[in-house]
Design a protein that fits this description.
alpha+beta; globular
């Protein structure tokens, strides 16, 4: 998962812990629980990336996700309901934030544009 911010900064030290896609009256709501992507030698960096993510949650520009099963699910649901709107709920460190979002599908990823 790659997150870019409006100030030009970005991180790839976060990952998806869980996700859920619900169909509501106004369209689909995608809920993503974000966690640090802790790798050997990068634990402190990943944990700081999560702290920064929560602090900068109002200035997130895009989120790029390259999980094939996630992409397939989102693409099939949005094709089924072509006129549906998509909302995004990000949950990290006990903080939940809602966004309107536009999804762009690439060959190996989906980009969620929050801006």
């Amino acid at each position: 998962m790659v997150v870019t911010y409006f100030d030009g900064s970005w991180t790839d030290h976060l990952s998806i812990a869980r996700y859920e896609l619900r169909n509501g009256a106004d369209g689909f709501m995608l809920r993503i629980e974000v966690q640090p992507r802790e790798r050997q030698g990068k634990v402190r960096t990943a944990r700081q990336a999560l702290v920064d993510f929560v602090a900068k949650r109002q200035v997130i520009h895009t989120i790029q996700i390259g999980k094939p099963r996630f992409i397939a699910l989102l693409r099939s649901k949005l094709r089924t309901e072509e006129s549906s709107q998509l909302g995004l709920c990000l949950f990290a460190s006990g903080v939940e934030t809602l966004y309107p979002v536009t999804a762009f599908f690439g060959p190996d990823e989906v980009t969620l544009n929050l801006g």
